[in-house]
Amino acid sequence: MRAFRITDWERPPRIVEVPEPSPGVGEVLVRVAANGLCHSDALMARTSEAFGRALGWQVPFTLGHEIAGWVAEVGAGVDSDLIGRPVAVVSPASCGECAACRRGAENACVASDVGRGFGADGGLAPLVVVGAVRELVPLGDLDPVVAAPLTDAGATSLHAVRRALGFVGSAPEHAVVIGAGGLGSFAVQFLRALCDAQIVAVDPVRRRRDVALDLGAHRVFDEVDGHTAALLAESIGGGGADVVLDFVGTDTTIRWGTSVTRRGGAFGLVGAGGGTLRRPWFGALPRDGVVFSFQGSDIADVRDAVALAAKGRIVSPVERFAFDDVATAYDRLERGELDGRAVVIPDGPG
Ligand code: NAD
Ligand code: ZN
């Protein structure tokens, strides 16, 4: 089968021919309906050997961590009734047994540094092996192509929104989303679904601002700068927003985002833009507030994102690309030229 792979450290991914995998004991083989493309994939290609090995990653591996499809085959010990069922695949792997997994915090599992599409074979191929049935979320009538982005862009932004609401309570007045791309546009929707906050989204790309407005943002800004901070203060009051979620994560967005978070508010750092969080003596961080960060999502986040989509309370807009156009799809993501999450439809197996 053809797979889009990282073949060596710090090398761009490419399409290569690989053998079809088969499921081992307790494992499940999923036929991939679609795999969503994430901004994080670009970071994978730049991962150094020292960094990757410290995480437990192996090269080569197939990229793609937003996977949905149908159960194709099951390993020994797995119920064969699952064959043919449509499923979403939880993005980070998890052991299911450690203290973090037992409390449902799978993204804190030590095994979650390696997952399908980051250090192990992911979904940019016709078939992918999933380690355990607990890492599959049944889709019912939801189209797997639409469901794929829910496993990471959806689940991660739901995780961010829930963490923030857990800190500030369920009735925030104002929320700000920085970066209304794949993750940020889901965050706008989850904020709309889970609280009554007025939502401001910031993105330099016009079509992403339009998408954010379509999906429920009340107001949009094009830049994180002093002028925008003043406009924001004018519209929500100088105290700042209860919740600020940064899906970019550069020095500029972190500095701006923390400065517009109210005292006692929550600032969530999700974007992996390489920025630095500074803590000078006065003023820079939300006083008596929380600054939080995390990687990935829990199984419940995927389950709940899928359930909200199945009920029509959120949507998962996608732009479909054929497998041969995977590089073009990444280019369009990089240039901010997408209206929905790019999903790649792999070849049929064999
Ligand atoms: P994306 O490219 O779809 O979205 C990023 C958006 O940010 C784009 O719309 C872009 O126009 C906008 N943007 C860029 N610079 C900006 C600025 N200065 N101010 C405001 N907006 C700006 O990417 P994505 O797939 O949604 O990923 C977003 C980030 O989240 C990436 O850094 C990715 O690596 C990271 N990520 C983190 C996790 C996690 O678990 N923590 C999971 C997935 C992705
Ligand atoms: Zn991702």
Portion in strands: 15-25%
Oligomeric state as shown: single chain
Q: What is the H/E order?
A: EEEHHEEEHEEEEHHEHEHEHEHEEHEHE
Q: Helix amount, in percent? A: 25-40%
Main sheet makeup: 7 strands, mixed
Give the end-to-end Cα distance, rounded to a whole number of Å.
Answer: 6 Å
Give the overall silhouette. globular
Unreliably modeled segments: none
Q: How many beta strands in the DSSP annotation?
A: 18
Instruction: Round the mean pLDDT to the nearest integer and report it.
Output: 95
Describe the structure.
- The chain has 350 residues and is α/β, with parallel strands linked by helices.
- It contains eleven helices and 18 strands.
- It has helices at 40-44, 49-55, 99-102, 144-147, 153-168, 182-194, 206-214, 226-236, 251-259, 299-310, 326-334, and strands spanning 2-6, 14-17, 28-36, 61-62, 67-74, 86-89, 115-116, 119-120, 127-130, 136-138, 174-178, 198-202, 219-221, 241-246, 261-269, 290-293, 318-322, 341-345.
- The strands form four sheets. Strands 3, 5, 6, 9, 10, 17 and 18 form a seven-stranded mixed beta sheet that branches. A six-stranded parallel beta sheet has the order 13-12-11-14-15-16, with helices on both faces.
- Helix 5 (153-168) crosses helix 10.
- It is globular.
- The model has no long low-confidence stretch (mean pLDDT 95).
- The structure holds nicotinamide-adenine-dinucleotide (NAD) and zinc ion (ZN).
